[in-house]
Amino acid sequence: MKQFFGIVLRDVRFRILMWIIGISALTLIVPPAFANLYGEAADREVLKETLANPAMVAMVGPVPEGTYTIAVMFSHEMLVFMAIVHGLFGVMIANAVSRKMEDQGLLEYVSSTGITRSNIFGTQLLIGILMNIALGAVIFTGLVVMDIESFGLEGSMLYALGTALFGLLFYMVTLVLAQLLPSSDWSFGIALSLLLLFYLGRAITDVVNTDYSVIFPYHWLSRIEPFGVNDFVWLSPFLIIAVFAWLAWFLFAKRDLDDAYITLDFKNKTRRIGSYPRLQLTGMKVLITSWLAGMLLIGLSYGSIFGELDTFINENQFLAQAMESESGMDPILQFLSTLMMVTAVVGIIPALMVSARILREEKSERLEMLVSADISRGRMLLTHGIFGVVTGALGLVLAVIGMYAASIGVEDIGVTIGEYMLTALNYTAAVVLFTGLSMLLIGISKKLHTLIWVYYLYSFFVNYLGLIIGLDDAWRIVTPFHFLAEMPAEEMDWIAWAAITAIGIALGIAGAALFKQRDIG
Amino acid sequence: MSILELKNTTKTFGDTIAAHEVSFHIEKGEIFGFIGPNGAGKSTTIRMIIGALTPDSGEIFVDDQPISKDPHYKNKLTYVPGDVNLWGNLTGDEVINFFMKTRGYTNTDRKDELIEKFRLDPKKKCKAYSKGNRQKVALISAFLSNADLLIFDEPTTGLDPLMERSFHEEVIRAKNEGKSILLSSHILSEVEKLADRIAIIRDGQIIETGQLADLRHITRIEYVVQAKGDLETLKSLPFVHEFTQDHDSTHILVDNDKAPEFLEALHPLQPMQLETRPPRLEDIFMRYYEDRSDQS
Ligand SMILES: Nc1ncnc2c1ncn2[C@@H]1O[C@H](COP(=O)(O)OP(=O)(O)O)[C@@H](O)[C@H]1O
Ligand SMILES: [Mg+2]
Asked: What residue ranges are annotated as transmembrane (chain A) (predicted)?
């Protein structure tokens, strides 16, 4: 077990380290920033009021009672969002040390050298526990050392422990899925879907009635209310981790390697795949359809809270008037635009995943076979770019259709389906820009492509903070969202739209041209 | 006329010179063996030929045209990499059809014949295939084309002996159709039977090119002998190297071009059993470097 643990750890330690550094940096830069921006209690109370509207509750969770100290503000605005990142960390690493290793034949290989099932599972378990403890320890220490006003020991402990347990929960869920499903693509896809679906489910129930939210682990974190109530009791639902651990072990011990409880191989007749685009479409069918379904679901979830938004504004006429006189815009349109922006930012992910699929061809050395068959490299990359943009755009269209359909009964929203479509078109410019940049990076080198995710995370984060705490717009100047109109509240800005789209296309074409020339493999 | 020619092609990766001024040519209708130990630069050279890597310097010609000037030279070649990975969700049949379609090859009888010959179950998904079966899919796809140049990078590593023979038969058939074949390997004996000419590469440099018969001066043959007389007396002969004794026979390594002299010397010792082992690559290198150090 010791040797096996050593090998596996050596394989994933760099990734784990990067995640720990990334997550703790993302977490720990926030308290000083909040202390700077919102040092005044009065400012925080105003912010708290604005966060009570359903659009914000859907994004960050219910507003806690009691004084809105810097620490409470931090945990309220960060917990639910950071939980997604912690969950993703768990999902990625769990998949890497379980189903992915199995797919690569590594588990079979080590089994033949006398390493038992319990050694393998013990290692997987231990890595999950240790990495989350390490991350929790860094965050806890960081919060304590920074010693910012209102960040108590107990609260810091609960924040670190809660997020670590959340990460471990999804680690364990992924281990269970790794036994049930036939390949690492499936276990990753389903685990990620659960992570996002729970977030959406919580968004709806948090707005409608938080009693229903208790079925979603995200809400357990909200209920702990670190730095406020410090309710230790809400750590106890995480005991379910033990059940999942047992279940994963039970399922793992009882099956053959490379076998699965759910097989998804349909015996279909030979498909006619005669071109590269067809080849890729066949390979990405599941990826694309599940993202499109996801985007529709995001639209439906957000659309379903528009009614609550309307009620909220009618009940808070004072706030509504304040918002209207400040910006000259209908407050409900402002909230809607906020949610639309979040949807647009999420909608970029599938476009990037589709365009990056060509790297999978390269890493598996299939690309050189395709190249030797005289399929143009530039055309292959353009195929991915176009598929990426089309997937992204379709996702946005489905999302706005979802919003429209789910809010059809709400009278005070005067947004027509045409305006919704125009909004989707507006944000398609951002999809084009991101995809183009991704293609450019692929064209330069396969390693450089990771930068697109760094840029994406940056864009996501500054947008998110811009929306919830009004982070200065200057931060967004290097993202397309600074320039694009915030539709539907603002009028479509065709010049910005055309400029960003054109830049995206130019980057993509440059990427394809470079890709033709660079060494592959 | 040569179908392929490399002139001083060099490729470096950081500090590693993977290929250093590699030059050789392949005639039309010729089987060309490209031999070298692991890490010698075979795959790097082949990847330059198929256009996956761009040479740092030097030039590659296909049909006497520099490939940098002919964007579609690749429809004159097909290639099977050493480590074949396929699309896990596609069946073998779908992959073969895909490559037939992209290469515009339509003879499905030939496809059925090859599938039969290589005993492939084409209805299975590629992720369920073993390494050998993936290799078969790629080999079958390569034979299903009208290309004039077939390039195989260590093609038989995953195949069992029976399939290896099928592969050799197909290579010879392609040659008889007038095609040229580039066959890389780290095992000399594997290529020796098939190749009209070979090139030997080591540390990125071609050290010998020519017909195997012409390379006799650098190969050594291992004789396994049992004799009534005392074989020890042979030890002192200049063309005898490495002399080892196992329980009942003696292994003697002899310069290939000195076989008559050796047999003459052996005859008086009344040999009862005589076997030969094919030249091994390592022995070639050893002799090559000994010769070089003698000269200097
Ligand atoms: N993409 C690459 N990056 C860095 N080094 C490489 C790369 N490809 C090959 N090499 C190095 O070049 C040398 C030749 O490798 P290769 O051509 O694969 O040899 P062979 O196919 O003869 O075994 C080796 O030392 C190998 O490590
Ligand atoms: Mg090689």
From this structure: 12-34, 78-97, 125-145, 157-178, 185-204, 232-252, 286-305, 332-359, 380-404, 424-444, 451-471, 494-515
Instruction: Tell me the angle at which helices A70-97 and A184-208 cross, rounded to the nearest 10 degrees.
Output: 160
Structure tokens at A249: 């072990």
Task: Identify the pLDDT of residue A351.
Answer: 97
A113 falls within a domain: yes
Ligand 1, atom nearest to A521 Cα:
1
Helix (H), strand (E) counts: chain B: 8, 14
Q: Which of A265, A271, A366 sits opposite B85 (nearest CB)?
A: A366
What the block records as the tokens of A60 is: 């960050």
Asked whether the ipTM of the predicted complex exceeds the cut of 0.90, the reply is no
Is residue B287 assigned to a domain?
A: no
With 0-12 / 13-18 / 19 or more C-beta atoms within 10 angstroms meaning exposed / middle / buried, residue A281 is middle
Same domain, B93 and B235: no
Structural domain contains residue B286: no
In a domain, residue B296? The reply is no
Which residues have a Cβ under 8 Å from the Cβ of B92 and sit 6 or more positions away? B86, B120, B121, B122, B123, B124, B126, B129, B133, B136, B137
Separation CA A190–CA A170 (nearest Å): 11
Strands B31-35 and B197-202: parallel
What is the pLDDT at residue A268?
A: 67
Say yes or no: B69 and B199 in one domain: yes
Query: How many distinct structural domains can be found in chain A?
Result: 2
pLDDT of residue A16: 95
Same domain for A287 and A249: no
Three-class DSSP category at A40: coil
pLDDT score at B205 = 93
Give chain B's domain count: 2
Q: Which residue of A has its CA nearest to B92?
A: A270
- SS3 (DSSP) at B273: strand
Mutate to test the pocket of ligand 1, among B44, B54, B182 (most ligand atoms within 8 A of CB): B44
User: Is the per-residue pLDDT at B251 higher than 90?
Assistant: no
Cβ of B74 within 8 Å of Cβ of A372? The answer is yes
CA A521 from chain centre, in angstroms, equals 30
Please give, rounded to a whole number of angstroms, the shortest distance from the CA of A431 to a CA of chain B.
28
What is the pTM (predicted TM-score) of this model?
Answer: 0.85
Using alpha carbons, list the distances in angstroms from residue A73 to A228, A468, B236: 10, 11, 92
Last-in-domain residue among A234, A260, A286: A260
Q: Please report the DSSP string for A193-225 in residue order.
A: HHHHHHHHHHHHHHHH-HHHHTTSHHHHHHHH-
Q: Quick check: B93 and A270 CB within 8 A? A: yes
Spatial contact of A515 and A381, defined as CB atoms under 8 Å apart = yes
In short, whether B16's Cβ falls inside 6 Å of ligand 1 is: yes
Looking at the structure, do residues A112 and A4 belong to the same domain, yes or no?
A: yes
Per-residue model confidence (pLDDT) at position A266: 64
Instruction: Say which of B78, B85, B94 has its CB closest to residue A270.
Output: B94
Residue A495: what are its φ and ψ, rounded to 5°?
A: -70, -45
Ranges of H-type helices in B31-105? 42-49, 92-103
Residue A212: exposed, middle, or buried by beta-carbon count in 10 A (0-12, 13-18, 19+)?
middle
